[in-house]
Amino acid sequence: MYQIPTALKSExxxxxxxxxxxxxxxxxxxxxxxIRVPMGIYEQRENGSFMVxxxxxxxxxxxxxxxxxxxxxxxxxxxxxHITTRxxxxxxxxxxxxxxxxxxxxxxxxxxxxxxxGNTVRxxxxxxxxxxxxxxxxxxxxxxxxxxxxxxxESDSWSLPRKYKIAFSGNDSDNANAxxxxxxxxxxxxxxxxxxxxxxxxxxxxxxxxxxxxxxxLPVNDILYVAEAVKQLFSEHGNRRNRxxxxxxxxxxxxxxxxxxxxxxxxxxxxxxxxxxELAIPTLPGVKDRGTKVDSxxxxxxxxxxxxxxxxxxxxxxxMVEIPFEHGITSPEILKSIATFLQSxxxxxxxxxxxxQNIRLRNIPGNxxxxxxQLLLQLKIEVxxxxxxxxxxxxxxxxxxxxxxxxxxxxxxxxxNRLSELATETLDQLSELEINLSGCPxxxxxxxxxxxxxxxKASRTDRLYPAYYVTVGGKRGVNQAExxxxxxxxxxxxxxEFITEVVNAYYVNATKYTDFHDFVTKDKSANVLAILxxxxxxxxxxxxxxxxxxxxxxDLFSLKGKGVAECSAGMFDMxxxxxxxxxxxxxxxxxxxxxxxxxxxxYQTIFHASRMLLVTRGIEPKNxxxxxxxxxxxxxxxxxxxxxxxxVISQANVNQNEDFSSSSILINELADNVIALYENMDxxxxxxxxxxxxxxxxxHEEESKKDRNNIRIKDFRGVACPMNFVKTKxxxxxxxxxxxxxxxxxxxxxxxxxxxxxxxxxxxxxxVKQKGEYWSVLIQKK
Length: 782
Description:
Layout: H1 8-23, H2 29-36, E1 41-43, E2 50-54, H3 63-75, E3 81-83, E4 89-94, H4 99-108, E5 125-126, H5 141-151, E6 166-169, E7 183-190, E8 193-200, E9 212-219, H6 223-237, H7 249-255, H8 257-274, H9 300-309, E10 310-312, E11 318-323, E12 329-330, H10 332-343, E13 351-353, E14 359-365, H11 369-378, E15 393-394, H12 408-419, H13 424-429, E16 435-438, E17 452-460, E18 464-472, E19 485-491, H14 495-508, H15 516-532, H16 571-591, H17 595-611, H18 624-636, H19 646-654, H20 664-679, H21 696-707, E20 711-715, H22 723-733, E21 740-746, H23 749-760, E22 764-771, E23 774-780
Parallel strand pairs: 5-6, 6-7, 15-16, 16-17, 20-21
Antiparallel strand pairs: 1-2, 2-4, 3-4, 3-12, 7-8, 8-9, 10-11, 11-14, 13-14, 17-18, 18-19, 21-23, 22-23
């Protein structure tokens, strides 16, 4: 449903080459991670096993696309397909060498994994009932698609300080978590004019926050200006140095709401004055005004299924139907069958993925429901069990995620089994109750917005055991949004029993409370605390070993396999790799037993010191010679590093077997200065120097500018998106206001994307001129 950027095909072809180079050892692992993660490819818990995340804006996917994804999964012998809490699909257990072909096949289906990870614009969410709900203000789906189509085609959407998440909700109930996203839009009407309440700086994960009201009414045609202004604000003021404080909400913690809003309106006002954007609203497939009412009296089990999982839409005689999947996991064969059934209905807007990891069918005529019910029975989907049992949400946890602490899927399954022992009547009356589990504090299971939520931790008696923090009181909705409060912890072994006791206590006393949220928060969560206190004693390992195994685990609980978040892939991983190499080399020098080894280690110090900060200038050297040449040009000639190191760097460039022993003090000093330069770099990648060294390279640069009539020239031919824009942006950051920069770009995606992105940063594009097979763009810095 969204439009794939024209540049994606060439990016996939380039990625295929990069996979080969990585497998051959030409590209280091840390650099390759920075390449693959923004393509939506994550390494799983098991080394060498990968996941591909597929963008599905607003949870939308057509029957043909779903069939194509399922067929693709079958071709690669993938056993499962995973529906995420962000309305996307994930393919797991893929070999790295398979990923380029998979991306190419997704491209043919009109689907992309680009932006599925890394510091990028992520999948844009929307209300699962958009366009079919009687209570919505208007259908928000087209606006989510319109933003997606623009943002994913812009090169600066792939080089942000951290992920950028956006959501649209159809009314104040906020069933798309708009208030808990970096940028949230909630549909509203003003004198019958469509518009949005706009919220900025929400987010879950560690140190969560609800969004700050930015506009109480924004005309719908201005949403692109807001999204672009937020992107510029984030790009220029987000914390690029500390990934743990890099989300938009941390700007509010650091600067305060008044200052953040002031900065935002500066960007917003400038973009509106330039009038550079036009929102193109796509037309969604038409929907029948009405269908056929279903006859629900024919069969008792069919009638029960309708009550649990089907609901009539605002369009009379058309129904939305929820198909439940435990943990959002199903097989390619099941999805093929569902897609094939939907194809027979001759429509495109027939399904959405929702945040509870299920499929929500839509626009289903009532007379089709009996056949659908029979199909689901044949597929052995749990259509005859209470909805609550398949309404539990759990992230993938430590089964595959490198950040996971606990096995949330195993715990969720155990909870389901224990709850199923309650009376069917009880479970049906509590069908809308939400329980969410995350394997770590990152809230992929959205525990923080659930009335009853849990996130994994490691606890200890005489040894480690799996446990969960208990959060209560999470709530959605404009003017009532709340984050869950931490009430203590519960060991994983007794988690199912604890939850069952809480649920049963609510059922027994439901008449005393307005809803489950009221029950868990009443009298400062006294009800939950009273039950939680019963589960605080954990026996020693020798007394009961069961507490020290996680649910579904064969081995004793440990943090083995836990690693660094793949989302953190980026320039700082690459910088830290060189920095750590320098520190490791110093240790090795002290124990080296011969001069040849010492000499080689000194050369390696020069190499890593020279390469360490090149990435902050958008430079990707292809070989060792380019490392030294670019360092001289971008750091020594720019006056950031003293010219006294020029000779030893030049020697390393000419001959790595040179005798460096007499320069050991100078070489270590070079490394110290580069590390110090890095440590004094600000959040926007600018270097703060107390005293800029007197450097003849600066004179050379000034003379060079005069020779070119005060126009700096940069040749970015052969540089693919988005690196061409990153390099342009970094070069402009080094220049004074109103200075001129001329860049050379290839035809196609580079010339289509970069000038617009430059304008989006507030600079003036004075001239765009074709020169044979490439283009010249003249820019004046703002």
